[in-house]
Structures are given as C-alpha cells and as structure tokens.
Design goal:
Radius of gyration: 28 Å
Oligomer: single chain
Low-confidence stretches: 1-21, 101-123, 568-594
Mean pLDDT: 83
Helix content: under 10%
CATH superfamily of the largest domain: TonB-dependent receptor, beta-barrel domain
Strand content: over 45%
Largest sheet: 22 strands, antiparallel, barrel
Structural class: mainly beta
CATH class of the largest domain: Mainly Beta
Distance between the termini: 37 Å
Number of domains: 2
Number of helices: 8
CATH architecture of the largest domain: Beta Barrel
C-alpha cells in the first residue's frame, strides 16, 4: 500500500518553471478523478502539486473553467471532495484529507450542528519580475502598477496601449496614431514628436528590449499574462532610456507537453464613424514531450475612422489597420530553459487623427492625406538556469528593426499642396547577462553586464506630394557597454536596505544624410563623435511595520545620451558657429538654410517615499501611496519653429512633484472597487536662451491631475457559467502640447467613461464593451501637422462612443 501511495504521488507531482505567484491563469479542468484534475491544474498553472492519498485522488470532482488564481481554482476544485490544500511555497502545493468532524453518540448529537468553516488559503505574494530578481511585492521598495492580460478594459480599448493608459492613470501617451506615440510616466515628458531623442520609458517584451529612440510600437496585448510598470527612473537595472520608468509585457510562455488553442473574433461600431473588426488565434503545440514546446499567436484588427475631411469631401478618413503575430519555442533540459522567439507587426494609418478646433466637431480641411506606416520586427533568444537555493542565471540577446514612415501636410495658404515626408529607420541589438540570488524575506543580490548597439536614420523630403525632394537628414549611432549590480540586506528585523549602481560607457556618433549638392562637401564632412561614462547609483530602505504594511524610501537616477539634430530651415547665408554647420539649400521660392547641431545628454534624479498596505487580490482592502520629487537637468525636447520644422534641443532644467495614490476595496465576495489619482506639478526652471517660454512653464503632455475609478463584479451562475460586470472612468486634467509659443495650446480636461460585461460558459466567452459612454470630444495629448499648427488650431479628439462585441473559444 505504501508503494502504491508513493507511486501515485510521484505520478501526479508536476514540476514547471517558476511563475509569478498570485497571477491569474485560464483553467480548463475536466470533471472526473481529483488526481487527473490536479495534474491538469499543475500543467496549466506551471506549479508543483501532489496528493499522496489514493482514495482521495480517486474521488469525483466537478469541472472548473475560467480565469482565476491558483488558490481560487483549488478552492473550487476541492469543494465537497474532503480534501484541503497546503501551500508549501509560492509554487508548490500538497493536497491532504480534511479532518473529519468528531462523531458523537446519537443521544448527545446536536440537531443543528454548525457547518465547518471554509478552508482559508494564504494568498501567495505577487512577484515583481521587472525587478530582475523576482522581488516580492510585499517587500519591494518602490511603486508598481499592474494590469492583468485579461483585464476587460484592455479588450474594450482594442488590446493596445490605449487600454493601458485608460487603466493605469500614472501612464500617459501622445495620440499621433497607434504605432507612433510616445509614452510618459509621472510627468517626465519631453515633446509630442518623433525626433532623434531617446524614449523616456523603456519597454520590454519579457526579457528583451523593444525600443530605444523609437515611438511605442504598440504591440497588441494578445495572449499575455500581465503588464508591469515601474514608475520613476530605473537607471541601475535598465540604464539609458528609463527616465520615467519601465513598462514590461509578460507574455504567456509555451506550455510543455500540452496542446492548447484559442480563437477570438469581434466587431466594433463607432458613433459618427465606420465599423471595425478584429480576430486572433493562439496555438500551443508540444514538439518533444515535456521537453520542447511551440506557441504561436496571430492577429489582425481594423479601427474604423471617425474624422471627415471637408476639403476633399471624404468621410471617416482616419482608419487604422494592424496585423501581427508572435512565435515562441521553448526547450527545457534539466535546470536549463531556452526560449527563442520572433514577433512582428505592421500598422497602417490612412490619415491623421486630428480635427480642426474651430470647425464642426470631428471635421477638418486638408488638401492631402497624412498617412503613415509602422513596420516592426523583433527576434530574441533567452537562456535561463535556476538553482534550488534561489540562484538564477539569465542571458538574453535581441534584435529589433523598425521602420516608421510619416507624411504631413506642409501646404501654405493660397499655394499649391505641399507634403513633408519623414522616414525613420531604426535597428538595435541588445544583450544582457545577469546572475542573481533571492530569499523569501526580500534579501538578495544581482550582478550583470549588458551591451546595446543602436542606429537611427532620419530621412526627410519636402515638396510636391507626387514627388517631394530630399532635404538634409541625420544618422545617429549609440554603442553602450554596461556593468551593474544591486544588493538587498537586512538591517534589523523587518528592515532591509538596497544599494546598487550602474556604470555605462557610451560612444556616440552622428552624421548628415542627403546633403544638398551645392553644399555637399561642407555638410558631408560634419561628424559628431564623443564618448562618455556615466555612473547611476540607487539607494532604498524598506520597513515592514506589520505583515501587511510596508514603508519605503528610494533614490534613483536615469539618463539619455545626446546626438545630432537637424534644425529648421531659414532664409540666410552659410554659417558655421559653435559647432553648428549651416548651408543653403535651393528651393522653388526661397533658399532654405539647414543647420545641424548637437544636443547633450539629459539626466534625472528622483527621491521617493511611500507605503503599501495589504496585498492586491487578497483581503478586503489594499492601499498604495507615494510622493516623489524629480530633478531633470538639460532636458531634451523637440521644438517647432514658425515654419513647422522640428528640432531637438536642450531646453533647460526642470523639476516635478508627484503624488500617486491607489486603493482597492472588496466589500463582498466577487465585488472589487478601485480608485486612483496621480497629481503632477512640473516646471521648467531655467529655460535655455533660445527657448521662448514663460517664467514657470510646465512640462508638456502630462496632466496635472489624472484620476481613475473602476469596479467589477463576478458571479458564478452555474458550475460552468460565470458573469462579470465592469465599469471604469478616467479623468485627464489640463496640460500643454509642448514647449514654446506655438505649442502652448491647452489640452486635456476630459472624462472617459466605459462599461461592459463578460459571460463565460465552458470553453466559450462572450464580451461586450462600451467606451466613451458620454461621447466626449475632448482634446488628447497630440496634434495634427506641425506645419499648419500655427495657421489652424487643432485638436485630437477621443474616439467617439464605441461598442465592441466579441467571442472567444479555448481548447
């Protein structure tokens, strides 16, 4: 009997790589033997779970389907089985027989004995993988924003960045169009345009970097586990380009030894506009049993236009189409795991997303279409090894190629139509290796090295829309080699300190492209080469006043390297001053002067203090609050001249105060209420002499007040039937478009209300989502053409009221 018990226990003990504890998973557990259902649960959640009692394992249980945490799935699965779970650690469980009630003689038996209290399972802590060493949220000394992959708000807004900004008030975005927007966190925002400046937010897909000085690629959030956002500079762990913070997309990994699949389809109706549609599919295939697996994801979507062009007599001109997919191959051998993947996406916007402010709502008059395309490709390899004592080794290499092509209307009044074309080609190779060790109490360490090589080429053309002539562009190259480390150690019972540093050596170079023939010899010789070494320290302290209350303080720094920028044309003569080369370009009407100059690197330093009470998803209430002060020196920003041409300059220094508060309340089972607010107060304190702004101008694009509230209620109508109702609201306060008199237009001050429902029946799910319920026009953080901005006031309205219906099938 003992031998049989051991054999059974070994047979259903499932071991899988570590996952983020506390995460929710899509479960499809069959009715039948408890032992078989536990095997399926372990495989689908990536945990270890065993039962050593053969009679308990053979008991019949009902099916469990839907998206939930491991503990929720176990509670539902074991209901009425006589078993109870014991959590060994965050990813290891054992199921044992529940104690039987004491039997009493019939004459002493109480006629109405109270039922046994329900089994309470301690909720495992959420693990913040963006910390690069699996830091427990309960002891992490910093702010964290999380969005689950199945969050209905993301689906209602089209599974993209717009859903994230609607869900997370600390995250903001411009709205030039999907695939060419900039992301901002905590008021660290530079400008609305896509010049040679590096992004202020570092974006990652798993372990691999997505961007450098490119706009947000807006990879659709299909088949992902969750999104993690770390606000504030993250220079120690992530280096250049993390001034505002980090956004990390955690995709669902291939499941070894398991066949899985999912398909979905949906349609959308936009008031005042065209309909849209979307479809996606996922297939998980075992290649070698329990050793090699492949996961494939594909999708396509079209967003209907809703802006009419009265000059060309066209309706709903701003339609956008997106196609893409991912493939991921995972091989597991002993303690080693190797992942190799590729991701690609193509976006085409048929016209700009803006309208004329003084015209009838959702209309404008422009002589040409301002279309754009974004082609994105990512390939990467990740090798990982784990040891049982908490030690982990990770090495990754990734290659990115992106091509963003944009057209703007540059026509002047009473002249023939004219177009400005801009082509930005970007390539990046990144590699990182790190070794870390962590303990359950939050202590641990990591050391690592990284290398990045990035090249961007900005080509420009101006003139007749059918054949604009090339004008001077610029090429920038950055090579970085880095060593970094961080350690957390215990100062006293419940008190830890974290210290780290990153030393980066960068070599920057720049040169001009398409120099005009008349001045080719002059401009072609312009080069900018320099090397610099930057050290970024970090310090933090955390104190656990109670098991559910943490206080912390932290100091972090970040930076962006400099580069070359093309300045605006003017009518003038050739000039060389202060390292800036200018040359006359021939034109049809006037001679245009093109100047090429250098902008320096900028740096931020943030001091932050905060607290965290409770744990998201566990208990009746949780709260997170923080206050931060940021000092930003030599701010890089894109500015616009009177002709509409943009250039990158160091505009001066700045400071930002930020207050961030988030709270969740679960008054009854199944009901969650959430509220959040982010307050930003920013100022450019000593603007550069060439920048025309007021004495206390705020930084652009981030509202002074951002607010969010949300609610969702889930009820199980039957064993395989569940209904979720949800609603949310987002308020964006006022801000300004950019720096300087032309970009001083006020924007923001709008409220977006959304609601929806999700009905899950077995393997099927049906969804309904309605965004912008109030049909607010508003004015989001963007504009139309920079060339006509000084002539015609512009707004970028919210998408009008939109209804989305969808269907999903999992197998």
């Amino acid at each position: 009997m003992r031998l049989a018990s051991l054999a059974l226990s070994a047979a259903i003990l499932i071991h899988a790589p570590a996952v983020a504890a506390g995460a929710r998973h899509q479960f499809n557990l069959p009715a039948g033997r408890l032992g078989d259902a536990l095997v399926a649960l372990g495989q689908q959640a990536g945990i270890s779970i065993g039962v050593s009692d053969p009679s308990l394992a053979s008991r019949h249980v009902a099916s469990v389907r839907g998206r939930m945490s491991v503990d929720q799935a176990l509670t539902r699965l074991l209901q009425g089985s006589g078993g109870r779970p014991i959590a060994i650690d965050a990813r290891t469980y054992r199921v044992v027989r529940a104690p039987e009630p004491v039997r009493q003689a019939a004459m002493h038996r109480r006629p109405h004995a109270p039922p046994l209290p329900p089994v309470e399972i301690e909720q495992p802590d959420i693990i913040i993988t963006a910390s690069k060493r699996s830091f427990r949220l309960a002891s992490f000394p910093g702010a964290v924003l999380l969005a689950e992959g199945d969050d209905p708000v993301l689906a209602a807004y089209g599974q993209g960045t717009e859903g994230l900004t609607a869900r997370l008030p600390g995250l903001n975005s411009t709205h030039l169009g999907t695939g060419r927007n900039k992301l901002f966190i905590r008021g660290i925002a530079d400008s609305s345009f896509n010049g040679p400046t590096q992004a202020t937010v570092g974006q990652y897909l798993g372990e691999t970097r997505l961007n450098y000085n490119t706009p947000d690629p807006n990879l659709r959030l299909q088949d992902i586990e969750r999104v993690e956002v770390l606000p504030g500079p993250q220079g120690t762990l992530y280096g250049a380009g993390s001034l505002g913070g980090i956004l990390r997309i955690v995709p669902n990994a291939p499941r070894l030894g398991e066949v899985q699949g999912a398909v979905s389809a949906g349609a959308s109706l936009t008031e005042h506009g065209d309909p849209g549609g979307e479809a996606s599919a996922m297939l998980n295939l075992p290649i070698v049993a329990d050793a090699v697996g492949l996961r494939l994801v594909g999708y396509g979507a079209t967003e209907g236009g809703y802006i009419d062009d009265t000059l060309r007599g066209l309706d709903d001109v701003n339609r956008t189409r997106t196609y893409g997919g991912r493939a991921r191959l995972r091989a597991h051998a002993g303690s080693w795991t190797i992942d190799a993947g590729i991701a690609g996406q193509y976006i085409r916007g048929e016209d700009g997303q803006f309208a004329d402010r003084d015209a009838p709502p959702l209309t404008r008059a422009s002589p040409i279409a301002e279309d754009y395309t974004n082609e994105y490709l990512l390939a990467d390899v990740v090798v990982e090894r784990g040891w049982g004592d908490g030690m982990r080794f990770v090495t990754t290499a990734g290659f990115v190629r992106q091509r963003l092509e944009e057209r703007y209307d540059s026509s002047r009044p009473d002249e023939a139509p004219q177009a400005y074309d801009q082509l930005n080609r970007l390539t990046m190779f990144s590699a990182e290796s790190r070794l870390s060790r962590g303990a359950g109490d939050g202590t641990g360490w990591l050391i690592g090295t990284s290398f990045i090589s990035h090249e961007s080429e900005l080509e420009r053309a101006l003139g007749d829309p059918d054949g604009p002539l090339p004008i001077t562009g610029v090429r920038n190259t950055v090579n970085e080699i880095t060593a970094f480390g961080e350690a957390t150690f215990r100062l006293a019972e419940g008190v830890t300190a974290t210290a780290g540093g990153r030393i980066t050596h960068s070599r920057l170079s720049g040169s001009v492209l398409d120099a005009p023939e008349s001045t080719y010899a002059l401009l072609a010789t312009l080069r900018a080469h320099r090397s610099e070494t930057v050290f970024l320290p970090s310090f933090a302290v955390a104190a656990e006043a109670r098991d559910d209350l943490l206080f912390y303080a932290r100091y972090q720094e970040g930076f962006r390297p400099g580069g070359l920028s093309v300045f605006a044309p003017f009518t003038a003569s050739v000039a060389i001053r202060n390292g800036v080369v200018a040359a006359v370009e021939p034109g049809d009407a006037v001679a245009r002067l093109v100047a090429v100059g250098r902008f320096e690197n900028d740096e931020v330093a943030t001091l932050e203090a905060g607290l965290r009470y409770g744990r998201p998803g566990a208990g009746a209430f949780d709260l997170a609050a923080s206050v931060a002060y940021t000092r930003w020196t030599d701010i890089q920003a894109d500015v616009i001249d009177l002709f509409g041409f943009q250039s990158t300059q160091n505009i001066g220094n700045g400071r930002i105060y930020t207050l961030d508060v988030r709270a969740n309340w679960r008054p009854v089972p199944g009901l969650n209420l959430e509220a959040a607010a982010v307050l930003n107060d920013s100022e450019v304190t000593n603007p550069a002499p060439s920048i025309i702004i007021g004495a206390s101008s705020p930084l652009p694009n981030v509202a002074k007040v951002n607010g969010y509230f949300g609610t969702d209620y889930r009820i199980d109508l039957a064993d395989d039937l569940a209904l979720t109702l949800w609603g949310s609201g987002r308020y964006a306060g006022t801000s300004r478009l950019g720096i300087g008199p032309i970009l001083g237009e006020e924007q923001g001050d709008w409220f977006d209300l959304s609601a929806g429902a999700r009905l899950e029946r077995g393997r099927h799910a049906f969804t309904l989502g309605i965004t912008n319920l109030l049909d607010t026009v508003g004015n989001r953080f963007a504009m139309g053409s920079p060339f006509t901005l000084a002539l015609q006031r512009q707004i970028t309205p919210l998408r009008p009221r939109t209804v989305r219906i969808g269907w999903e099938l999992r197998f």
